[in-house]
Each structure stands twice: as structure tokens, then as C-alpha cells.
From TrEMBL:
PANTHER family: IRON TRANSPORT SYSTEM ATP-BINDING PROTEIN HI_0361-RELATED, METAL TRANSPORT SYSTEM ATP-BINDING PROTEIN TM_0124-RELATED. Transmembrane segments: none annotated. Belongs to the ABC transporter superfamily. SMART domains: AAA. It comes from Chelatococcus albus. Pfam families: ABC_tran. Residues 1-233 form the ABC transporter domain. The keyword DNA repair does not apply. GO terms for molecular function: ATP binding. Keywords: ATP-binding, Ion transport, Nucleotide-binding, Transport, Zinc, Zinc transport. This is Manganese/iron ABC transporter ATP-binding protein. The keyword Nuclease does not apply. It comes from the Bacteria.
Length: 279
């Protein structure tokens, strides 16, 4: 049985949502605003009650996995109180809390983990800055560092690319790939459709339930995306190339980073003629 979440106001944000993710993979969670992506993360983290169903993480019930500190969560920026006066290094140290005793006195191993995590995301020089004084992309990187310091086997990222520039996005993707190579599992919600085939092995399409899930190459089809987004996606057709060598490509876009579909309906992450794939 899948997972159902009903909020206190009676709104059922997820109904019978069900999917599995293999270890050592990155899975995209894709859906329109309000389709239940954040609710799904909150359900996995135990922040909202399940009306029905259950969640299992690496073979353990979610509550046991969370207690075992194996799940790291990078929330959406909107869910964080940035006015809270706390230093960058303290935010990253929070990732170590689950490894400490009740008094939460950091040991050398905790300080080393924080240092390594800050360096891995390129934020070593910002450790003494107030978190509220950072740019959007820098804040994201600090929260990624918190997840790295936690050393979670499963990492949930709620819209890590929103409001970040192309360079930071690429840096985050590179980091996620290296975490995948270490055998970790990642679930990433994103509106950047164009980058999904580039780095996500698998995709879950959501609209208040799971519409489709599986390898991105199979799931990311025009039919499935249209079913997921309905009329919300901008959809236009380009002609590629000059003279006789013209080839029609469909471009469907949920945001600034479009997804390109060739005539046979398969996805390509790069827009033809635009090396970086961004328009
Ligand atoms: N605390 C809450 N109480 C009642 N309804 C809520 C609550 N949080 C979210 N919802 C509703 O549940 C639905 C799913 O919201 P959710 O935040 O999970 O969507 P999302 O897919 O993450 O959207 P976005 O892409 O905008 O971040 C929405 O209709 C939302 O209004």
C-alpha cells in the first residue's frame, strides 16, 4: 500500500504514493507546484503523519532509519528561518548532532567532519559568517555541507537548484554524482527539467500520487511529462540546423532550463546549438 498524507485542514496532498529507489542512484522528483513533493520529503522525515501506508529506508522502517541518523535532509530555502543568528560552521555542525551524546559537545572527529564538508562545497572561507548574510546559492551549499557532515546514506534535497546560478548548479551536480559513486541514495525535487536526464538515473513523476517511476530514459517521455504537467508546461518546436539538414525538436519547459525532446520522443539535456544547454 502506498503513502497517503492528509493535512489537518483536510487536504490530501498525497494519495497512495508508491515507488522504490535502488541504492547508488540519483532520483528526480518532478511535478507541478503543489503536487506534493515537499510533502513527500516531510513524510519521509517523519514531520507529517501518514494517514495510510508506510515508508521503508534501506530495509528499515523510516522511524528506525531516522533514529539511526542515516537520512540527511536539505530543505527548501523557504522552509528555513534565515533571520536566526547562527554561524555557517554551527549550521554544518548541526549535521553532527545525531552522532553526539545529549550534551552535544563536539569532538575532534565532529570538527573534522564539519571542516571537510565545508571544503567539499567550497565554503571553507565562510565558516564564521552569519548564515543570513549569505547569497541564496551559498546558503544552499551550507545546507549541503550539513548533510555531508551528517554522513547520511540517504540524502533528500528539496529544490537544490532554485535561485542558484549555473556555476553553482553544476558544482552541486558534480557533488551529487560523487556522492552517488560512494553508494549513497539521493532524491532530488527539481523544476529544472533540462538537467534531469543529465544527472538523474531515475525519475518519479508526481501529481498528488505517483504517476510514473523508473529509469529516467524510460520515464522522461513527452507523453508522461504532458500527463504530469498538463497545460502548465510551455511547449514549442524548434528547427535545428541550416538548409536541408533541418530537424524538428520539441522543447518543453517548466522553467528557465528547458527539456529538449527529439522527434522520436526521447529526451536530451542539451539544447542543440547551445553548448551549455541553457537558453
Ligand atoms: N501544512 C499544510 N497544511 C495544509 N496544506 C498544506 C500544508 N503544506 C502543504 N499543503 C498543501 O499540500 C499540497 C502539496 O504541497 P507541497 O508543498 O508538498 O507541494 P510541492 O510539490 O512541494 O510544491 P512546490 O513545487 O510549490 O514546492 C499543496 O496543495 C499545499 O497547499
Amino acid at each position: 500500500m502506498g503513502v497517503t498524507v492528509t493535512y489537518r485542514n483536510g487536504h490530501t496532498a498525497l494519495r497512495d504514493a508508491e515507488f522504490q529507489i535502488p541504492t547508488g542512484t540519483i532520483t528526480a522528483l518532478v511535478g507541478v507546484n503543489g503536487s506534493g513533493k515537499s510533502t513527500l520529503f516531510k513524510a519521509i522525515m517523519g514531520f507529517v503523519r501518514l494517514a495510510k501506508g508506510s515508508i521503508s529506508i534501506l530495509g528499515r522502517p523510516a522511524a528506525a532509519a531516522l533514529k539511526g541518523n542515516i537520512v540527511a535532509y536539505v530543505p527548501q530555502s523557504e522552509d528555513v528561518d534565515w533571520s536566526f543568528p547562527v554561524l555557517v560552521e554551527d549550521v554544518v555542525m548541526m549535521g553532527r548532532y545525531g552522532h553526539m551524546n545529549l550534551l552535544r559537545v563536539p569532538k575532534a572527529v565532529d570538527r573534522e567532519a564539519v571542516e571537510a564538508a565545508l571544503h567539499r562545497v567550497g565554503m571553507g572561507d565562510f565558516r564564521k559568517r552569519q548564515i543570513g548574510e549569505l547569497s541564496g546559492g551559498q546558503k544552499k551549499r551550507v545546507f549541503l555541507a550539513r548533510a555531508l557532515a551528517q554522513d547520511g546514506r540517504v540524502i533528500l534535497l528539496d529544490e537544490p537548484f532554485t535561485g542558484v546560478d549555473v556555476k553553482t548548479e553544476e558544482a552541486i551536480i558534480t557533488l551529487l554524482r560523487s556522492l552517488r559513486d560512494e553508494g549513497r541514495v539521493m532524491l532530488v525535487s527539481t523544476h529544472n527539467l533540462g538537467s534531469v536526464p543529465e544527472f538523474c538515473d531515475r525519475t518519479v513523476l508526481l501529481n498528488r500520487t505517483v504517476l510514473a517511476h523508473g529509469p529516467t530514459a524510460e520515464i522522461f517521455t513527452q507523453d508522461n511529462l504532458e500527463r504530469t504537467f498538463g497545460g502548465v508546461l510551455r511547449h514549442f518546436v524548434l528547427n535545428e540546423g541550416e538548409g536541408g539538414g533541418r530537424r524538428a525538436v520539441d522543447v518543453i519547459s517548466d522553467d528557465e532550463r528547458p527539456l529538449v525532446l527529439y522527434g522520436d520522443g526521447h529526451a536530451a539535456s542539451r539544447l542543440p546549438g547551445h553548448d551549455g544547454g541553457r537558453t
